[in-house]
Amino acid sequence: MAAAASHHQQHRHPKRRRLALALSLSPSPTPDAAAPPLDSLADELLFLVLDRVAQADPRALKSFALASRACHAAESRHRHVVRPLRTDLLPAALARYPCATRLDLSLCARVPDAALASAVVSGPSALRAVDLSRSRGFGAAGVAALAASCPGLADLDLSNGVDLGDAAAAEVARAKGLRRLSLARWKTLTDMGLGCVAVGCAELRELSLKWCLGVSDLGIQLLALKCKKLTSLDLSYTMITQDSFLPIMKLPNLQELTLVGCIGIDDDALGSLEKECSKSLQVLDLSQCQNITDVGVSAILKSVPNLLELDLSYCCPVTPSMVRSLQKIPKLRTLKLEGCKFIADGLKAIGTSCVSLRELSLSKCSGVTDTELSFAVSRLKNLLKLDITCCRNITDVSLAAITSSCTSLVSLRMESCSRVSSGALQLIGKHCSHLEELDLTDSDLDGEGLKALARCSKLSSLKIGICLKISDEGLTHIGRSCPKLRDIDLYRCGGLSDDGIIQIAQGCPMLESINLSYCTEITDSSLISLSKCAKLNTLEIRGCPMITSTGLSEIAMGCRLLSKLDIKKCFDINDVGMLYLSQFSHSLRQINLSYCSVTDIGLLSLSSISGLQNMTIVHLAGITPNGVTATLMVCGCLTKVKLHEAFKSMMPPHMIKNVEARGCVFQWIDKPFKVEVEPCDVWKQQSQDVLVR
Amino acid sequence: MDLSQNHIHNQSAANLYYQFGSDNSFPGLGTQQQFPPFTSPFGASPSTNIPHMDWNPATMLDNLTFIEEKIRQVKDVIHTMVDSGGQLSCHQGEIAQKKQVVNADLTCLIVQLISTAGSLLPSLKNSSFLRHPAAGHMDMANHVGPSSGLVPNAMTVSEENKEDMCSPEDYEELFKGWTDGTIKEGIEIGNVLVEEQDMKDGDEGKDGENLPPGSCELLQLEKDEILAPHTHFCSICGKGFKRDANLRMHMRGHGDEYKSPAALAKPPRDASAEHELVKRYSCPFVSCKRNKLHKNFQPLKTILCVKNHYKRSHCEKSYTCSRCHTKKFSVMADLKTHEKHCGRDKWLCSCGTSFSRKDKLFAHVALFQGHTPALPSEEPKTCSDQISHAGSHQESTKVPNSMGSSFMWGASSGDNNALDIKGFDGCNDDFLSTANFGSFNLSFGPADGFTGEPSGGSFSMLPSEHFQSA
């Protein structure tokens, strides 16, 4: 606790200085000496200051509010987003922040109608955006209360409302000013409910009807007729057909159309536009539409002259004639062809037809060969993002072509391109110095390659998992020259030890996420150095048996924003580590404790972390059903808990029911107890054997 | 009529007899009993309907007179040819035409003679039918088509056409299409004549079907035939059936000979049937568009079409819907179709209009500004799982306008959560039933029925309570 206090102190001093500075600049008349200085400060200026403070450390605002009554009031007026941890806090939170315009309930798994109604009425009606996408338990009545008491409601996210149906949609329709609405996964929604929304919310700009299986052409047609201002429409996995496709395409302002997995859309539908064209459409997603072929795609491309983004993943084989029709959309920036099959020089045609491409995804495509890919990338000089994940046939030839022609690449993803040699991987660093995102997972990368990558000073995300050849020396280069690194994945890099990690921790202060799973040589000293990375929020040290509670406690104290922690199979971590976590890591949302030496005591102490949502507690020798039950009862925010199957019968059923009633889902794991961790090279060999088979 | 023709074509005389001999149950009684059964199924008395079928001396005499008349006409034509023989210079073509006319007339005479004689000798007649299907065809169809001069007192249409036919001018016209006067075509002439004339006058509105002249055969059933309930009759007991297959099933009861697979099988269509012309039908109601005399005549395609058309257009609507008691139908099937949907206008609009079909409702909503689909009053399982509202909302077809300012949740939210929940529960139901919110103030009387509890009672053990207390 002492550490926390000192932490607050540290933050408070510079802030005071800044406030004083702002005060001296303010044009207000000379402040009365008796009046608190904040009273004379214009709200706008104060808010600018608070914005900066929040940007530096979100928790600092809390300490600011505690400083004085005026500070408290100022902070109340400043906050615009309210994200309560528990539903029962909702009325209080809204009363505390009357100026809030956005209510984010994504941390509340269960929001009963009553809570929604009472909270919203007691609070202000200034709310403009409400997010209920992760919440369940409310119905038409709750939606009705929300719509009635928030006249300014413009953004409503009701995704995943699997229980909601037409009645709730009719209530949504009473929020006349809605501009953005998501009804994704309303499986019981029919045309009637959609018709109500279409008539009621004529101002709609963005609408998602993803997975609304009950909606048919009739409803969509009415929507297209009534909501002419729509700019973005998501109809993924609905049963729409040609009948409603035509009116949608005729919407005058439609910019973004998502039709993932629409099996009713076929070549006839795509061809039905004929001479008509949608000049406004910029983004078209046809991925996983199984019933369209290259003929239909060619047909629709004639009707969308201003398209910027096209997604045809898992859709149809790519033929040269189809690619040539891409010439009709000269502005195309992004082309996604994940999981497609290239037929007869289709890839080459991309090189000749889509010269303006900025982003190309060929992930998991079949039929990508060296000659074709080399030809294509040699023409695509402007490419910024390239994804060739799992193109297993490409070799050094392709990589040489990519690095020599696409020198301005910002993102390169080439996981599992296993035929590319370590020598060729050095070319990446030599030629593509603008890279910000690089995925070389499961490649032949070695120390020399990493040394070359040191030239990429803007690198922010580096994924080099399962690269068994890399060493501490290589990482040292990265640590020295990539200060902007935020995310590094070193999963199963068996050759690494503490030295490399320490270099990274010292050189990359912006680090937010690090994965060290199964780097078996790692010890507490790595964690001690990582604890200096104050922004770290994700730490995965699964299967690092040499790590103890000492290292974890340093992390808990240093990385106060830690929200995801995986310490599975860190056998030496015990209750002490948990006690530190419970003291300092109040941001923790997700934790995996399997195989640790934690007992009931440690587990119970964790329950003081009020926002904990996700726990995995399997194969812990020191855990008893009673301890688990007690913990679960206390943690009010849990949404998902993984427990061993044996616990199911040992825990009182009514307790399980009670926890489930709060919105928590239990997953009962039935895996054998397995302590030993294979060496990385053995594991890689095994996984490759599986792949070959 | 179609059926009877089929039988003529497809079945032996004996078969034919069994099929239709409902009144005269014994075979071989004589020719005069051969034909009446044809008409009896249709409920008309044989003597008046198709008189020539009967062996009666008067008819025979009539036929012979007609033949005499015909011979005289032919003679006249030949005379004129002889007379004009001097002026050879004139028209070779005209002479050729006249020859054709004579040829056709003679053919006609021969056929008529054969059939007249055939009516005297049943065996001879039937065999002649089989040898010349067209001849039999003519006999059967003659009361429809105008070709047969054998029908002196048949219906008016035939009369007219017969006279038409007798005039050489018409023959000229006809023979443009047919150069060779085979028996078959010579007899078809009359049938097609009507159609061709109609086609000439009318525009092309023919139900999209435009059969060239001569490619179809036009038939016209009489009113009685159309309205007859049964078309197949048991030759032994006289019971009527709508379907031939039902009759065959029925016949099993009359003896083992009807149980053989051959007797039970569907009678095969013989080879001649394949070369048959497409059949089209005319409605007997004069001035109907489906009547062949109408200017824009549109033929009916099947017997069933004829029956449904005649009932729908020219008969009284005797079936009344038992649900709405207003809609009337003359075809039973139409009534049944209607009754399936009658009174189930479950698709409601906010304006109170109801529709039987969803697409009709959506078309309505699309058309009128501000109208919105309205959900039916009973919407099961829409509210959250913890709010139990077993109550039936009386009528909420009208979409509630506004919650009203008296919708006060916050009033009690501070002090009592349980009360709050209850309050909300009540409000929820109130809201759906569009009752007044003004009266709602955490106290609704026991009259509100849906809770079954007085206002003071609290809902114990609501899941949310657990949550909130936790």
Written overview of the protein:
The complex is a heterodimer of chains A (693) and B (470). Chain A is α/β, with parallel strands linked by helices and 693 residues long. In chain A, helix 9 (191-200) runs parallel beside helix 10 (217-226), helix 22 runs parallel beside helix 23 and helix 24 (575-584) packs parallel to helix 25. Residues 1-33 of chain A have low confidence and may be disordered. Mean pLDDT of chain B is 60; it is low at 1-54, 123-207 and 379-470. Among the domains of chain B are: 216-265 and 276-315, no CATH class; 328-374, no CATH class. At the A-B interface, helix 6, helix 7, helix 8, helix 9 and helix 10 of A face helix 18, helix 20 and helix 21 of B.
Cα gyration radius of chain B (Å): 38 Å
Beta strand count of chain A: 24
Main beta-sheet annotation of chain A: 24 strands, parallel
- Terminus-to-terminus distance of chain B: 87 Å
Class of secondary structure makeup of chain A: alpha/beta
Strand content of chain A is 5-15%
Determine the most extensive contact between two protein chains.
A-B, 49 and 42 residues
The tally of helices of chain A reads 29
Mean of the pLDDT scores of chain B?
60
State the helical fraction of chain A: 25-40%
Low-confidence stretches of chain A: 1-33
Biggest sheet layout of chain B: 3 strands, antiparallel
| Assembly context of the chains | heterodimer
Q: Can you list the strand order of the major beta sheet of chain B? A: 8-7-9
Number of helices of chain B: 21
Radius of gyration of chain A, whole Å? 28 Å
Note the overall shape of chain B. extended
InterPro entries (chain A): FBXL15_LRR (IPR057207), Leu-rich_rpt (IPR001611), Leu-rich_rpt_Cys-con_subtyp (IPR006553), LRR_dom_sf (IPR032675)
Organism (chain A): Miscanthus lutarioriparius
Protein name (chain A): F-box/LRR-repeat protein 15-like leucin rich repeat domain-containing protein
GO molecular function (chain B): zinc ion binding
